[in-house]
Predict the structure.
Amino acid sequence: MKKEKEFVLPGDVLVKSLDWLPGKNCYRDGEEIVAKKLGLVQIKNRVISVIPFNSIYLPRAGDMVVGKVVDIQSNGWIVDINTAYDAFLPLAGMKQFIDITKTDLSTILDVGDLIYAKIERVSKTSVYLSMKDPLCKKIQTGRLLTINPAKIPRVIGRGGSMVSIIKKASGSKIFIGQNGFIWIEGGKEELVIKAIKLIDREFYKEGLTDRVAKFLEENA
Amino acid sequence: MRVQNEYVLKLIEKGERIDGRALDEYRLVQVEKGVIQNAEGSARVKIGNTEVLAGVKLAVEQPFPDKPEEGLLIVNAEFSPIASPLFETGPPSEEAIELARVVDRGIRESKAIQMEKLCIEPGEKAWAVFIDIHIINHAGNLLDASALAALAALLDARFPGWDGQKVDYTVRGDKLPIQHKPIAVSFTKVGNTFLLDPNLEEESVMEGKLIITSKEDGNICAIQKTGPLVLRLEEIDDLLGKAGKYAEKLRRMV
Amino acid sequence: MLKRADGRKPEELRPITIRAGVIEQANGSALVQMGKTTAVAAVYGPKSMYPRHLRLPDRAVLETIYAMVPFSTKERVRPGPSRRSIELCKVIRQALEPVIFLEEFPKAQIDVYIDILQADAGTRTAAINAASVALADAGVPMRDLVSAVAVGKIDGEYVLDLTSEEEDLTACDLPVAVIPRKEQVTLMQLDGDVSPEDVKKLVRLALKGCQTIYQKQREALKRRWIDEGAK
């Protein structure tokens, strides 16, 4: 059986036993539980999974994402959210009421515009967005940073601990898209970017929050 | 369609087929040579409702620089839209190219044609053998039918006239120097079973095929795994052992 | 024992180098050198599939685009697809398809581009080795890795990993791709003139070679993600 935090590759047998359940990024093959992605083993209760090092974004309802408008349709916008499918932002997902007989939709959101949106609903191959959450907005200023979506949980930290120390040290507003885009507005934007790049590089190491705190202290 | 697919799969699991054949049984194979008078050689092959036409045309060309004393062989396949709603017009599909190249390799690697006898003037002039495969009706197992038609057309082919300047296509001269008879047999995996001569219903549920082309002496001259199937070593051993036997049956037809 | 022009033993691979994560823009990438043969692979996706009518309702479309760059051989290769490259794209795709969980991304598309920078035989097998590492590097869900090598028979001896010089001498050229852990074959082609017994033995020799390549593939991925630190 593989150990907690052991590095594995697709095809590696994590455990050969029917007493265990395959968690995320694993599959059952007869008696064996096998890794689907490269990453580190995680063992919790009777569930064995792999925390991937690299992954495309897999949309979940409730996630906040940064998206780019790629097309305008009669009833809403097609938005690229850096996953396997384009997402759809329907008119009904907007805060305001829009009378389509009188409104050119491109005056509200045009092709190329960036938005911070919430995933409302996910079916097997469709993703629906909403802008109704107070956090949602069209992105007009600030900096956008892209990192691997697999590392976003580390940027947030346990209970938001990581992002809050960065916010505090930089004075920036930081909007994290679960799809790997981070939008930074105001404050010491450069410092935020450097801190996130540090997380990006060393995301799999122990004591990351302390290292980042130290880095922020030294560079603030 | 899903209902039909599941039915086909369920039957094969029991060792039965939708048209009542045994797993290793071909549909009726018919070979007819000399069907196109304007070609130097031609053949029509029917396997059940699958129908393939192969034509051989000859021309005088310059040999390849790396083989100055040999003739040339060019195999092409056309999946005409007349043959199936699955076929479209336009440049040859991936499938058509693969089929032509697998047929080509069987003929080339077995040295079926004595290529050096096609040389007219080393480095300057040699006969080029064009084999064109034209699908008339696609009812499954195009590869076996096409390879058989290509071989039959080669055996039917005769040289046109050549006066040192130009080719006289009104003349039917000597037969082409054919010394081997390569035969392709496609082992088709459906479910956990390998079967021969799949029909269209079976091809729509297959994982893929292992195509083995062999000569009279049992030697193997071309193999192609096609489709996303995986093969265990024992499966490969088993199919390699059987290919020659089934090829021999088809060889008798030409 | 057969003496090979480059001094190798019959059952010896050419020097092999594999590096993962060589193209920053791609979701995953790899460079594979087997002797002089050099292949570089990049994975883009899973992403939205266009044109729409080619979308599959139950799984992603895998596209493998194999190309030889113009200066990869002694004589310049004309850019653009050839009949040969179209066939290779197909067999390479079908060598990889069995290990990818395409069913997890209905209607999407995964592109694997493979460029042959230098060719000295075995380009399709080098391409598969590179593509397999690039797919794992990209975090595409996979059942396993795939490894590949070509084998042949020269002067009655079975030889591993042919060079182009040896391709002119061999009684057959047999490229094989396998899932090493399961000993399952995902690519098998042959041209030549050999007995069924020869083929059986050669497939086993290829499998042995693939086990070594598989270790190199693993080391490359580990080096990229653990030793060099994740980028």
